Amino acid sequence: MVTLSWKNIFFVLLASLFFIGIIVISLNILSGSLLVLFILLIIHALAGKYRFLTSLFISFLLSFLVYQYVNNYIDSRDMSLEIKTLIKRSMLIFIVFGLVFTKIFYKQRTFAFTKLPKWNKRITLPFHTIKLSNFLLIGLIVSSTIFIPLFIYKEISYVKQMLVFGILFSVINASLEEIIWRDILLSSLKRYVSTFYAIVITSVGFGLLHISIGIPLIISLLFSLGGLFYATVVLKTNSIYPAIVFHFVINLGMVFNGWII
């Protein structure tokens, strides 16, 4: 049984405001966005030893707000949909910069999972242990199942047409999203709160962020399962790179299946 302490209430409130902030900013509701940020600023002033956490959420939401307004401007420009999509996903760098600035300001280590995984290491799963290389191979095979609809419904000419765009989009999107959610936010949160809390926050937040690209709320929440998987991969391997590879494969499959454009 979980004891409902003031600390737990504080963490739940902080997470709720963070999620609401992502939703209202994604929907371009400026008044709601400013209200959430105002409440977070008040909490920040009273947060004491948890001021870094509130700063992290505030910097994310402020950077995300800038990201949204830049993307709205890009949407108004006359250019191809593919170019627009690539530029817009590249703008996730605003969120990276905002989070990095906060970590530097608080004298925190910026990136935590930059080492290559130890392939011969054995990792512990709920019911057994497995060699890391085998675990990653299984994960890659499972991720690759996203290409199955491609072979059923799409022609090879479509794949050739979308190849360059698919690779560029997948590299940009997978790298920046994993840096934001796993390398910066997950590593930062787990230093101050439980690993469970850190995984939940980053996974749900990762899912909700997809509302900003027009995906409905319920579907976006399903993306949180992907966030849970990527977080598990990062924590088990102590490296961001396998998660980026898995994320790249999923994104490439989504492009080729026509789910991105």
TrEMBL record:
Keywords: Hydrolase, Membrane, Metalloprotease, Protease, Transmembrane, Transmembrane helix
Cleaved signal peptide residues: none
Residue intervals passing through the bilayer: 12-43, 50-70, 90-106, 127-152, 158-176, 196-219, 239-260
Record-linked InterPro entries: Rce1/LyrA-like_dom
Domain CAAX prenyl protease 2/Lysostaphin resistance protein A-like: 162-252
Gene Ontology MF terms in the entry: metallopeptidase activity
E.C. number(s) listed in UniProt: 3.4.-.-
Taxonomy, superkingdom: Bacteria
Name of this protein: CPBP family intramembrane metalloprotease
